[in-house]
Amino acid sequence: MNRDKDLDKIRKKKIKKLKEKLEKENMNEGKPIEVTDENFEEVVSKNEMVIIDAWAEWCNPCKKLEPVIEELAEEYQDEIIFGKLNVDENGGVARKYGIMSIPTLLFFEDGELVNRTVGALPKQQLQSVIEKVTA
């Protein structure tokens, strides 16, 4: 009886680890993921490099930046998690990081904010920032 319980515990632990690994692998399929006040800490802390795009539906510069973020997410899919945070729906993160203008990109390395950009920067300029941050 005890052995069955032990095997069951081991099995459950193994399944949990496999699920976590699969979730992490599926998290970055070359597309930005949705980030909310609820999952923000987990996304930032569980991934080595994360770039959060703080945006809003009504923001024209945000719309201009969107295809650039999608391209970068695909290009850097093996290195960086890109997330999109709607500041109108997720004010907690916006307040915590003092986001006053959008679009704002927050660059996190090992859970720590290491850089930020404000405005719809061209792709080449963002690539330059990414290269500096990841160097």
UniProtKB/TrEMBL annotation:
Transmembrane domains' residue ranges: none
Matching PROSITE patterns: THIOREDOXIN_2 (PS51352)
A single Gene Ontology CC term: cytoplasm
Gene3D superfamilies: Glutaredoxin
Classification via Pfam families: Thioredoxin (PF00085)
Domain Thioredoxin as annotated: residue spans: 13-135
Keywords recorded for this protein, A-Z: Disulfide bond, Electron transport, Redox-active center, Transport
GO MF assignments: protein-disulfide reductase activity
Matching PANTHER family: GEO12009P1 (PTHR45663:SF11)
Protein name: Thioredoxin
Protein species of origin: Methanonatronarchaeum thermophilum
